[in-house]
Amino acid sequence: IVAWVKSLLTEKSIFTQCGMSIVNKKLTAENRNNINHLFYLTFTTNIFAAVIFIPIFYLLGTNQAIGQGNQSPLLIGLLAAPLVSMAICFGEMMLALHKIKIFNLALITQRVIYVLLVILLVLFKIISPFYALIAILISYFMQLCFLVFSLRAEISYKVNIKKLLNIIYSLKSFVIFLHLANIFAVTTRALPILVLSYFYSAKIVGFFAIAISLTDMAHSVMINIGRYIIPKLSLMSDSNSKLKFKLTVIFITFIISIFASCFFIIFADLLIKLLFGNDFADAASILKILAMGMIFFTILHTLQSIISALTNGPTIMISSTISSISML
């Protein structure tokens, strides 16, 4: 149930971002004086979009079999979506400022608080989907607070509305195409769990979610490499340097993905039993299949990051659109 709600939460958070995560990264890398305006633009956009999309996703969730009787966890998950999206957007600012340590500390803060809260729920014997999602909401709120506090020196209370509108207008095509690309990419990741929720029991969804949680550990490494690509390429002007950097990144991520894929295929049964117990042994076969696709995911995500850094037009949508169509 938690995996199902998190899929809807992730899907809603990408709609809530309205493409601001990459916009923040790109414009902050180009000129850090944009941070103040981007901060307020990000905050306003996320809150406004969250209000619009909460009823839409709530109806989507309650129309699924798994959603009937789980309205409270669903609502908590949807309320956490703007916190997740703002944390992502402000995290991209940190990457653009090359404050990798603060970015990683923010991620660790969220993970550690979530784990500690879940441990407390287990110790007090009140663990349930509802309280687990409350823990997620609190952990992302603390991550957001950490990031905002870290950005405090870059933010003032003076906002130039005219400059803010000029930024939005100058980026209109970039934001539209990039936002659609992000929606396609996230939908591709969330779609399997959402589809399984329509046709199978929560137990089957759980098997798939267990396998996904393990492959995501490897995916997160690739995604963080991809996050670093955009601000780095945005600052490069020499074509030879750009080509060398692109080839190096593709080679590194490809090698990492090969090793990660082989590791999960070989040790799938052992990992599932060791981490989750014999009750989830059936998830091992799913993990092996997902591990085989890890190489393609890596190359696709790396190329998407490179394209996002070098173009503002419809080309941004190519890889994510192909992924979504093939998933459907």
Task: Describe the protein.
The protein has 328 residues and is mainly α. 83% of the residues lie in helices and 0% in strands. Helix 2 runs parallel beside helix 4, helix 3 runs antiparallel to helix 4 and helix 10 runs antiparallel to helix 11. The model has no long low-confidence stretch (mean pLDDT 80).
Q: Main attributes?
A:
single chain; 13 helices; 0% strand; globular
Backbone structural class: mainly alpha
**What's the story with the biggest beta sheet?**
none
Shape: globular
Cα end-to-end separation: 23 Å
Count of helices? 13
SSE sequence, one letter per element: HHHHHHHHHHHHH
Low-confidence stretches: none
- State the total count of DSSP E strands: 0
Overall pLDDT metric? 80
Radius of gyration, in Å, reads: 20 Å
Q: What is shown here, in short?
A:
With 328 residues, this protein is an all-alpha fold.
List the SSEs and their pairings:
Layout (H helix, E strand, L loop, with lengths): L1 H16 L2 H11 L4 H28 L8 H26 L3 H24 L5 H22 L10 H10 L1 H28 L2 H33 L4 H38 L6 H10 L1 H17 L7 H10 L1
Helix pairs in contact: 1-3, 1-4, 1-8, 2-3, 2-4, 2-9, 3-4, 4-5, 4-6, 5-6, 8-13, 9-10, 9-11, 9-12, 10-11, 10-12
